[in-house]
Amino acid sequence: MKKIRIIWGIVSALCLFGTDALMAQQYKVGVCDWMILKRQKLGEFDLAKQIGSDGIEMDMGGLGQREMFDNKMRDPKEAAHFKRVADSLGIETGAIAMSGFYAQDLTKRDNYMALVDDCFDTMDKMGNVKVAFLPLGGCGNDWAKDKTKRSEIVKRLHQIGEAAKARGKRVGIDTPLDAQGNQKLLKEIRSDGIGIFYKWQTIVENGWDVVKDIQKLGAKNICAIHASNTDRVWLRNDSTIDVPMIRKALDKMGWSGWLFVERSRDVNMVRNVKMNYSANVYYLKEIFNSNPEPAVVLDSAGRDPQYVKTIVERSQKATDELGITWTPKGQNVLNIICNRYFKLNDIYAERDSVKKVDKKLAEAQCDSRLYRSHNGFLADLSIYLKPQEIETVKDVMTFNVVKVTYDAQCDMIPTLKEEEKQQIMAWLIEARELAIDAESSKKKHEVFGKYKGRINNYLSKRGYDLTKEREAWYERIKARGGEL
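^ that's the sequence the OP posted. Answer follows.
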């Protein structure tokens, strides 16, 4: 009988708290679909996967002067299609957002319960999502002290919370308050269906300490977290937010849940969605120990750490150009490029060693190893990159000499025929294939130098006076206000 009671107690706990309560602490990292410019667009799931996130916070759509949200998910077929695509890519919907209330006043919407019910229905369609986001920004800045308005907000939030609880959900509100203010507000609301959708940006902008505030608020009061600051720099470069210490605080509190990146874009590249959000997602997953290990292992063992650092920085120029550095794919590509540089270093080191005994043998062995490793490098890249992306990697590794030289030739001799342009490009691409394998930047430029000589000879034979063409080109450049 005692054993039966114990088993029944466990079953009751599972029913009351869910299986997550008996599982290890878990963090998931997502992005807000309206901030990655994919609000209720089917492409949000693929972009979220490319970024490396675990899921998305889907917005309900615009509100403005509309009666209801501009919500595509009201159509069961559309919602089912979205859900299928999300599932096929392994991307979860971690929360549903009513971001329209950033600008719309909750107390002035007579149909607020219809709007909330629409949100709850969407949560069900997207996989029984448990958390909704409701910002109170549209209520203005003074409602917390305005007794009349605060009373109306509390009344409406109590009703929303009870409706949420009845459907097995929770609404996280975004307020301008600190932990003490939020605790007081939650007591006034008197509904377990309402919690705080915690926002780091709010705390930082008010000059409060995120770690102390989040600890004071307590795990039970936090539905989810908007884990970002205002747009300025990426999270890893933000001195106002100590993410590792926040992680320690959340660990100690026993909190589990979703961290969504809303902002923290680098203002120097604010429109580069993939780079900004993948950088922040990668950093959060790095701190919260949820980044997948790259399939390609960096061959850095036994190498000088400073040398490895230099090679990583050099290789990252290619993944930066592709906009994939802070993504799982980007990390694999980065390691492939780094390993290529390491391999070249090893090949040339072995050649120099053998040269001391047999110079001819050394060169033969070097050429053979370069040939095999060259093809292997391109094959490895092809696992992760499209052909045009591989071309970009080659160009970055050879200082973009192909484009610079080709453009200069066409600008210097505007009368070049199409077949002449094609021949010039063909030789430059051939030079690039050899330059990729060169042992130093100097040797790479020497390869291109030889092919530039070949191009000049070819053009001379075609009847071009290169001296005159070059002089005329210089004059045109000066007239444009430029310089060589």
